[in-house]
C-alpha cells in the first residue's frame, strides 16, 4: 500500500541469538480457528512473524510434533496445549479483552502460549507478543497478564461523511468513503489493525457536529451533505460491511446522532424527548440498527452546543435527552455517550459544565455515559481538570481527550500529548486522602475514554510522523493509565524507528521536549489559554495567534492579566472539593502553571523566583522558541540514522514549527507589552521608543 505502517513495521530481526530464539518458538504457530477474529490473528502472525523472522511461519490447525518449539494461540477450551499451560479459572476471570502470554512445555516441546477467554483478548495478546518482538525483547521466558483498565476505549472521528472532510483533521481527507460503502478499502483493515494493536475497541465513525454549524436554513444542497443522514436506512445498510470488518478486530461501530433526528430522519414534527412518538421512533431506529449491526456500540450525542439541537429546544434537560436514547438502546445492550461540552449561557465557559451537569448526578439511565473533556475550556495546551471529575459519583463518566492537535500546532508542530494526559490522569481529585485520581474514575463498567480525532488520508495517517505517537499513546493509556510517559514513548519509538539506542534516546528526548515548548511559546506558561486566532467563519483557524480576540478568557487589562476564577471573581475555583478550591483560591498556593487561569494579577506581581508576571511571560515565550530550535537541531542529527523519507518530512516540519513558534512569541509578547507597557528586561520585545 502507499501509506505508512506506523508502529506495525515488523522489520526483520538482525541475524543472531535473539532471532534464533524467536525462530525457535515462533516459526510454527498453532492457532485456533473458531471465529473470524482468529482469522485476524492468523493474518497478523503471518505478517508480523514473516517480517521479523525473515521467513514465512507455518500456521497449524493442530499442534506440530516434529519441532523444537511452537507458538500456541487460543482459548483453553479450544486447545489442550493451552489448557495444560495455564490455570483455566484465571483465564476465565480476566476482564473482557484480557489475556495471558506465557511459556510452557507440551509433550517435551517448548511452547509460547497466548491465551484469553475472548477472541478480542487473543487479538490483543497476539499484538502484544509482536510488539515485544518489534522492541527486540526476549520472549523465551515470559509471564504476562494483561487486562484493560477502561472497559470502553473509543476513537471519536470528527469525519464529515458526505463531504469527505474532517473537522480538526490535519492529515488530509477522511479515510471513510461512505458513498462507496459497502465497498471496503484495504485501508480500513489496516486502520483496524493499528487500532486493535493498541486495544481500541470502539470507533465512532462521524463528527459530533452532525449538522453543519452555521448552515443557512433552507440550503438543501448543504443539508444533503450532513452527517445525521447516516441514520437513514439507505446508509445504515451500507455500514454493515465496515462494521463486520471492525468486528474481526474486536472493534465496535458507533454513530454520532443528531438530537433532531426524529424530525430530520423520520417525519415527526417534534423531537421532544418526552413525547411518546419520539420515544417510539428512537426505539424503532435502534431496532433497525441492531438488525443490521448486531454488535453496534451506541450513539454519541453533542446536544445544545454550538448550534446542534438538544433537549433545551423542547424545554427538557440533558437527563430527558440522554435517557430517551438510552431506553431505545437498552434492549440491545447499546450505550449513549452524552457530551458535557455545553456552554453559552454563562459569561465564562469554565463555570458552566459543573453547574449544568453536577445537579443531574444519579439521574442518568444505566447505559448513559457522560463524556467530559479533560478541562473546563476546550483542549487547551494545559488546563486544570474539569471539576466534574470525582464529583458525580452516581454517573458513569467518560474522559474525552483530544488526539488531534487542534490547539497544539495542528500537526505542523510536533507536540506529544502523552505527558499532558498523564498529568490529567494522575491528578488527585480528592486530596483529602481518599486517593481518587482521575485515572481511577474510568475503570468500571459503563465508563471509559474517548479520544477525539482519527487519522486521515495522508500517507503517514496523521499529517506529522511524530503525531502517530499521540494515537498510539492515547490508546495505551486507555488500556493502562499506569503506564508512564517514558514507557509509552519507549515502546512507540522502538517499534516506529527501530531499537538503535542512540536513535531511541534522541527521538525520546525530542518527544518529551515538545509539549513544554508548545505551552511556553503559545501561552507564556503560567496558565493563560485561548490565545489563538479564531477568524469569523466557524472552524476557521485556531492555528495562528490571535490573543486580541479573547480578552474575556485572558482577563487582560492595562493593570494586569489573568482571570479571577476564584472567590473574588466568578467562583469557578469553588466548584472543586474544598482542599483543591483552597489551593486554587490563593495565588500563593495555586500551582504556577495555572496561576493566571485562576487569578488576575498585576503585571508587576512577583512570582516565587522574584520575577514579575510580565517578565515571566516574556521569558517563557522566548524559552519556548529556543527549545523548539534545539529540538529541531537534535532531529537534524538523526540524518542517515533513520530512513530519509521520514527524516526529511519531520525535519521540514520542524523548520516550519520554529518559524511559526516565533510568530506566536512575537505576537504574544507584543500584545502583553501593548497592555503592560513594561519593557522586557532583556530588550527582546520591541517597545514604543
Ligand atoms: C471545539 C472545536 C470544534 C468542536 C467542538 C466540540 O473547535 O471543532 O466541534 O470543540 O468539541 O474545540 O464539539
From TrEMBL:
SUPFAM superfamilies: (Trans)glycosidases, beta-N-acetylhexosaminidase-like domain. Keywords: Carbohydrate metabolism, Glycosidase, Hydrolase, Polysaccharide degradation, Xylan degradation. GO terms for molecular function: alpha-glucuronidase activity; xylan alpha-1,2-glucuronosidase activity. The keyword Isomerase does not apply. Residues 462-684 form the Glycosyl hydrolase family 67 C-terminal domain. It comes from the Archaea. Residues 6-129 form the Alpha glucuronidase N-terminal domain. GO terms for cellular component: extracellular region. Residues 134-461 form the Glycosyl hydrolase family 67 catalytic domain. InterPro entries: A-glucoronidase_C_sf (IPR037054), GH (IPR017853), Glyco_hydro_67_aGlcAse_N (IPR005154), Glyco_hydro_67_C (IPR011099), Glyco_hydro_67_cat (IPR011100), Hex-like_dom2 (IPR029018). The keyword Hydrolase applies. One of its GO terms (biological process) is xylan catabolic process. Belongs to the glycosyl hydrolase 67 family. This is Alpha-glucuronidase. The lineage of its organism: Archaea, Methanobacteriati, Methanobacteriota, Stenosarchaea group, Halobacteria.
Amino acid at each position: 500500500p502507499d501509506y505508512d505502517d506506523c508502529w506495525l513495521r515488523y522489520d526483520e530481526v538482525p541475524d543472531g541469538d535473539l532471532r534464533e530464539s524467536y525462530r525457535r518458538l515462533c516459526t510454527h504457530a498453532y492457532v485456533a480457528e473458531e471465529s473470524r477474529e482468529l482469522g485476524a490473528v492468523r493474518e497478523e502472525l503471518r505478517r508480523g512473524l514473516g517480517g521479523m523472522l525473515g521467513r514465512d511461519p507455518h500456521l497449524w490447525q493442530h499442534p506440530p510434533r516434529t519441532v523444537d518449539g511452537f507458538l500456541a494461540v487460543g482459548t483453553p477450551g479450544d486447545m489442550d496445549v493451552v489448557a495444560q499451560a495455564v490455570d483455566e479459572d484465571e483465564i476465565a476471570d480476566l476482564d473482557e479483552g484480557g489475556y495471558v502470554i506465557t511459556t510452557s512445555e507440551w509433550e517435551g516441546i517448548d511452547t509460547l502460549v497466548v491465551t484469553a477467554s475472548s477472541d478480542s483478548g487473543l487479538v490483543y495478546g497476539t499484538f502484544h507478543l509482536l510488539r515485544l518482538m518489534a522492541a527486540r525483547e526476549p520472549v523465551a521466558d515470559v509471564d504476562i497478564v494483561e487486562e484493560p483498565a477502561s472497559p470502553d476505549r473509543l476513537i471519536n472521528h470528527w469525519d464529515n461523511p458526505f463531504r469527505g472532510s474532517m473537522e480538526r483533521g490535519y492529515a488530509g481527507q477522511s479515510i471513510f468513503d461512505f458513498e462507496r460503502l459497502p465497498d471496503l478499502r484495504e485501508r480500513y483493515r489496516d486502520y483496524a489493525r493499528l487500532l486493535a494493536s493498541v486495544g481500541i475497541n470502539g470507533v465512532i465513525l462521524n463528527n459530533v457536529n452532525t449538522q453543519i454549524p452555521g448552515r443557512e436554513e433552507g440550503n438543501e444542497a448543504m443539508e444533503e451533505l450532513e452527517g445525521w443522514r447516516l441514520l437513514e436506512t439507505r446508509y445504515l445498510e451500507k455500514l454493515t460491511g465496515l462494521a463486520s470488518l471492525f468486528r474481526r478486530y474486536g472493534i465496535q461501530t458507533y454513530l454520532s446522532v443528531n438530537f433532531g433526528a426524529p424530525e430530520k430522519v423520520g417525519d415527526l414534527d417534534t423531537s421532544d424527548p418526552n413525547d411518546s412518538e419520539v420515544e417510539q421512533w428512537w426505539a424503532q431506529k435502534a431496532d433497525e440498527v441492531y438488525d443490521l449491526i448486531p454488535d453496534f456500540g451506541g450513539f454519541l450525542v453533542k446536544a445544545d452546543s454550538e448550534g446542534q439541537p438538544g433537549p433545551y429546544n423542547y424545554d427538557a434537560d440533558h437527563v430527558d435527552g440522554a435517557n430517551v436514547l438510552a431506553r431505545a438502546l437498552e434492549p440491545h445492550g447499546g450505550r449513549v455517550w452524552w457530551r458535557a461540552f455545553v456552554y453559552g449561557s454563562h459569561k465564562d465557559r469554565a463555570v458552566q459544565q459543573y453547574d449544568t451537569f453536577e445537579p443531574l448526578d444519579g439521574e442518568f439511565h444505566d447505559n448513559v455515559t457522560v463524556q467530559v473533556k479533560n478541562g473546563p475550556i476546550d483542549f487547551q495546551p494545559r488546563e486544570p481538570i474539569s471539576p466534574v471529575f470525582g464529583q458525580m459519583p452516581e454517573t458513569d463518566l467518560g474522559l474525552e481527550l483530544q488526539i488531534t492537535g487542534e490547539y497544539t500546532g495542528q500537526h505542523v508542530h510536533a507536540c506529544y500529548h502523552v505527558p499532558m494526559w498523564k498529568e490529567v490522569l494522575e491528578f488527585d481529585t480528592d486530596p483529602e486522602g481518599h486517593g481518587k485520581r482521575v485515572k481511577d474514575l474510568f475503570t468500571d463498567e459503563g465508563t471509559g475514554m474517548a479520544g477525539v480525532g482519527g487519522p486521515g488520508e495522508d500517507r503517514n495517517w496523521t499529517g506529522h510522523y511524530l503525531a502517530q505517537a499521540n494515537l498510539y499513546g492515547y490508546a495505551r493509556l486507555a488500556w493502562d493509565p499506569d503506564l508512564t510517559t517514558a514507557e509509552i514513548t519507549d515502546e512507540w519509538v522502538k517499534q516506529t524507528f527501530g531499537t538503535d539506542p542512540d536513535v531511541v534516546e534522541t527521538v525520546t528526548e525530542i518527544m518529551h521536549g515538545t509539549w513544554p515548548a508548545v505551552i511556553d511559546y503559545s501561552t507564556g506558561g503560567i496558565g493563560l489559554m485561548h490565545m489563538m486566532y479564531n477568524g469569523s467563519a466557524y472552524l476557521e483557524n485556531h492555528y495562528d495567534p490571535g490573543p486580541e480576540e479573547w480578552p474575556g478568557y485572558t482577563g487582560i487589562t492595562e493593570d494586569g492579566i489573568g482571570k479571577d476564577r476564584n472567590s473574588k471573581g466568578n467562583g469557578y475555583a469553588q466548584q472543586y472539593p474544598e482542599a483543591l478550591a483552597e489551593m486554587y483560591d490563593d495565588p500563593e498556593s495555586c500551582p504556577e502553571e495555572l496561576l493566571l487561569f485562576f487569578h488576575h494579577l498585576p503585571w508587576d506581581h512577583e512570582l516565587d523566583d522574584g520575577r514579575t508576571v510580565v517578565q515571566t511571560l516574556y521569558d517563557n515565550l522566548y524559552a519556548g522558541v529556543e527549545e523548539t530550535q534545539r529540538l529541531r537541531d537534535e532531529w537534524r542529527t538523526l540524518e542517515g540514522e533513520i530512513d530519509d523519507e521520514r527524516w526529511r518530512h519531520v525535519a521540514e516540519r520542524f523548520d516550519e514549527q520554529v518559524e511559526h513558534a516565533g510568530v506566536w512569541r512575537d505576537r504574544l509578547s507584543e500584545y502583553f507589552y501593548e497592555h503592560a507597557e513594561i519593557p522586557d528586561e532583556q530588550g527582546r520585545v520591541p517597545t514604543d521608543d
